[in-house]
Amino acid sequence: MLAHLDADCFYVSAERVRHPHLRGMPIGVLGNHGACIIAKSYEMKAAGVSTGMPIWEARPICPQGVYVKRDFQWYEMLSRKMLGIVQEWSPCIEFYSIDEFFFTTQDTTLAAAEHWQSDMQRRVGVPVSIGIAPTKTLAKLISDSSKPFGCGVLHDEAGRRQLLRAKPVTEITGIAARSAAKLAAQGITTCEQFADADRAFIRWLLTKRGEDLWWELNGTPVQPVLSKRPDHKFISRGGSIGSASADPARVQAFVVRNTERLVEALNYYKVMCDFLTLSLLFTDRPEQGERVHLLGSTADYEEILQAALWLLPRVWQPATSQVHYMHVIAGGLRRQRQLSLFGEPSSRAARVAETKRHINQKLGRFAVRSALTLPLADVHLDPANDYDICDIYGKSCF
């Protein structure tokens, strides 16, 4: 059997671990630019605040709320502590996300789930919900249905039917809005209807990924517990640039900053890329993106930066729109060559990049950075921007 453990309001719970006086209060955790709610306590949810809501809309709805900026370094510390505890329970664990874990178990009793729950609460201080079932998809549905601070075990067919009945298909991990719309057009809106549908039809409609979910919902495990993260097909860095901007210097500075972050990730995973994509989202028109093939596989900062800067005017002209979000995406990934076989970096740019990486590893990841990012003084002065969810390595979800 498989178990799924999911922390309840993890970012909020993590803040309450180090600030116990926040317990019972409506708490909203803000994104790195301090504008939007990225997590909320159950008390704040009850007041009507939703995830993604700007703080200036949340405050009138919940004036008694406490709003704090996120701190992913603290959240990762607690997440790694949780992972260590789960490793005591099971030899086979998937670090699915910062606050979710799948693991195999031979003890399928409700008492076991409740023991794990209390053990995690006592040793970490974070409340969790746990589901046990024959498949990953069912186990996650149970833990989600048991929130907050609940447990559930699926033992028989009657329990499976009851779990799926009247539950929207969007509750299934892997069924997003586009797939849900395809299913709805065929009269399939609940998990039970999805599981009862013809398997071949689901495969035709949603490809093999949909068929895998069909098997999982019907109790046949086809998704293994991934104790090691699968290789990336793409690596991306980016996100919001805060207030939308049409300032060429600021937009370019964010391209450079995200390229620095991207190259950092390429070097961590020891891969090179064959092509680069720059994608920009605007306030008043659809997303625009362009891709360029590089001159050979590379993880060289200067080469990738020049490609990103070459793409920028092909994706956006300052007079046209304000940029809101951006992503710099590396594709065509290949394993890096062993540099020891080829000697030390020969070019001046390569030596500078290596020196920069060495200093940043000792003093902080943005201690030395490109002068092109000088327009982002406000970003670099705010420690909330130094670490993001994508900097927590090892998770299988992305």
Describe what this molecule looks like in 3D.
The chain has three domains: 3-74, MutS, DNA mismatch repair protein, domain I (3-Layer(aba) Sandwich); 96-217, DNA polymerase, domain 1 (Orthogonal Bundle); 234-391, 2-Layer Sandwich (Dna Ligase, domain 1). It contains 14 helices and 13 strands. It has helices at 10-18, 42-47, 55-61, 72-89, 110-124, 136-146, 157-164, 177-185, 191-196, 199-217, 248-269, 301-315, 348-363, 377-381, and strands at 2-7, 27-30, 37-40, 66-69, 93-97, 100-104, 128-133, 151-153, 234-245, 271-282, 288-298, 323-331, 334-335. It has a five-stranded mixed β-sheet. Strands 9, 10, 11, 12 and 13 form a five-stranded antiparallel β-sheet that branches. The chain has a three-stranded mixed β-sheet with strand order 3-2-4. It is globular and about 65 Å long.
List the helices and strands and how they pair.
Blueprint: E1 2-7, H1 10-18, E2 27-30, E3 37-40, H2 42-47, H3 55-61, E4 66-69, H4 72-89, E5 93-97, E6 100-104, H5 110-124, E7 128-133, H6 136-146, E8 151-153, H7 157-164, H8 177-185, H9 191-196, H10 199-217, E9 234-245, H11 248-269, E10 271-282, E11 288-298, H12 301-315, E12 323-331, E13 334-335, H13 348-363, H14 377-381
Parallel strand pairs: 2-4, 7-8
Antiparallel strand pairs: 1-6, 1-7, 2-3, 5-6, 9-12, 10-11, 10-12, 10-13
Helix pairs in contact: 11-12
